[in-house]
Design brief:
106 residues, 12 strands, Complement Module, domain 1, N-terminal domain of TfIIb, four-stranded antiparallel sheet, mainly beta, three-stranded antiparallel sheet, 1 helix, 8% helix
């Protein structure tokens, strides 16, 4: 029981969106490295966005978007591949945006 307050605190402090980064040793040739997803070549010390909406360097790629995880039950999320973002809207009205909450607002 003494761990219950800690468990509740962790649940309340969970983020309302998730994002991820991946670190790796990329394939390097001379002064370039290769993107694992697109197989495109980039100069070392450069930054680029690949076709799956990740912002990359030669040593890492991070999602260029956040994934909403807490929103009303009558809403849904849909990924916009052109703008690299999730849209959250009413299930019965795609034109009506929905709020995305953090754990304290529920």
């Amino acid at each position: 029981m003494k761990f219950l307050p800690l468990a509740l605190l962790l649940c309340v402090s969970l983020p309302h969106c998730w994002a991820a980064c991946h670190f790796f040793d990329s394939f390097k040739v001379l002064n370039h490295c290769q993107d694992f997803v697109d197989k495109s070549w980039h100069p070392i010390d450069s930054n680029w966005r690949n076709s799956v909406c990740q912002d990359c360097t030669c040593s890492s790629c991070c999602d260029a978007y956040s994934t909403p995880v807490v929103f009303p039950d009558d809403c849904m999320k849909e990924f916009d591949h052109i703008n690299c973002k999730y849209n959250v809207f009413k299930k019965d009205d795609r034109n009506q945006e929905c709020p995305v909450f953090d754990g304290e607002e529920l």
